[in-house]
Amino acid sequence: xxxxxxxxxxxxxxxxxxxxxxxxxxxxxxxxxxxxxxxxxxxxxxxxxxxxxxxxxxxxxxxxxxxxxxxxxxxxxxxxxxxxxxxxxxxxxxxxxxxxxxxxxxxxxxxxxxxxxxxxxxxxxxxxxxxxxxxxxxxxxxxxxxxxxxxxxxxxxxxxxxxxxxxxxxxxxxxxxxxxxxxxxxxxxxxxxxxxxxxxxxxxxxxxxxxxxxxxxxxxxxxxxxxxxxxxxxxxxxxxxxxxxxxxxxxxxxx
Length: 255
Fold this sequence. Notes:
Number of domains: 2
CATH architecture of the largest domain: Up-down Bundle
Strand order of the largest sheet: 1-2
Oligomer: single chain
CATH topology of the largest domain: Growth Hormone, Chain: A
Helix content: 55-70%
Strand content: under 5%
């Protein structure tokens, strides 16, 4: 239960950051560029999130469902760092009109695009992983996504009313770090309880005086003594560490 709550909270914060970032960037772009290009940030957001989703889709082996929380934690952390770096590059970029220098103007626009796209790529990767690899109901996960986006719209109005554009973007990076922290807590909570899984328990070395089982069927009349822990460990490894039920084992008999 705790793992599910922290996962939903992390996804909620991450989706809120994406919406706040888009709205704040429209305000900054309207100042450093033409006012009719303010919604250029929305186009870059759609491009970056689509690219992140395609990265997840074409690398399904790398993003396995077993390591979902691990991937989400480092992707959310990368999102927060990329927002801060994007802010630094954004405020240090001065766009020029084409009559001055076409090559220089094109270079500055490419620099602006390269600075704005990476946060959305990480956001697209995280949201795509959460929706396609999550073990919880997709309706619950998608509801958390939509709730975070709605809260992000209200949060953008609050931030722009109290802070300037640059400070608002730095605040987005801080909230993204909070999302990474929530997802990492969910991952650590899972790894903390990993010792109680069947594989971790049965793979321990048998202690002195551990129970053994004697087979009633032997070839030479000598009973066959088999450690139950060793046999359980083999069954757990064969069945994928308890992720799918094992077949009932046959009785041990000498052939």
